[in-house]
Amino acid sequence: MDQEFDQPVCKKKKLWETVAERVTAKLRAEGYDDVPVKAFECDLKWRNMLATYRKNNERAKRLGAHSVHWEFFKAMHEVLGRSYEEVEAQRKAKLSGTKLGKAMASKRYTPILPTPTVTATAFSAARPPQDVLQLYLELQERKLNMWAQQKALEERKIEAINNLARAISSLAQETATAAKEPIVSDTLASLSSHQ
């Protein structure tokens, strides 16, 4: 459904509903009648797989393809691993028969591009898109680490409160026991004096 998803104006929710229907039909054909698939689940799963692919693709670029152990990497790479030149050639091939494509080929067409601002140019030169993605992933990882540290701190606070409660309870029991001992000894003394 690449063409449908690549349309500049489309209802992604409707497209994901179609994907969900197709996946549900395929699961039913394989004997899984009680597994309905929802559109938002498909969308979320795709986003997660895309993020995992991008992370593994960066790893493959840095360390080599042998360093990637994700079972879906090869299949995802066959779909998403096309180079910029391949994508551009495919786009030009789509335009070749159209009026716009012919105008571009004859160089009578001059695209009007927005004038980049100085900060946007400086930013894009300083940080290529994959670096921005890497920074985003690192930020998310830092957030997870901070959350884990916060959780550990809260657990230590709870443990300290529980220890304090046990200590107070123990002191209360010792005080109650100590208070009863004089009463018991006084009672025993009075009983022995009467005999």
What is the SS-derived class? Answer: mainly alpha
- Binned, the helix content reads over 70%
Low-confidence stretches: 118-124
Largest sheet, strands/sense/barrel: none
DSSP strand tally: 0
Number of helices, counting only DSSP H or I runs of 4 residues or more = 8
Mean pLDDT: 77
Terminal CA distance reads 103 Å
Radius of gyration: 34 Å
What global shape is seen? elongated
Total domain count = 2
SSE order: HHHHHHHH
Q: Strand content of the residues, in percent?
A: under 5%
Q: Can you put this structure into words, describing what you see?
A:
- There is one protein chain.
- This protein is mainly α.
- The chain has two domains: 1-85, no CATH class; 128-195.
- It is 77% helix and 0% strand.
- The chain is built from eight helices and no strands.
- The protein has helices spanning 2-6, 12-29, 39-63, 73-80, 84-95, 99-105, 118-126, 129-194.
- Helix 2 (12-29) packs across helix 3 (39-63).
- The radius of gyration is 34 Å and the shape is elongated.
- The model is unreliable at 118-124 (pLDDT under 50).
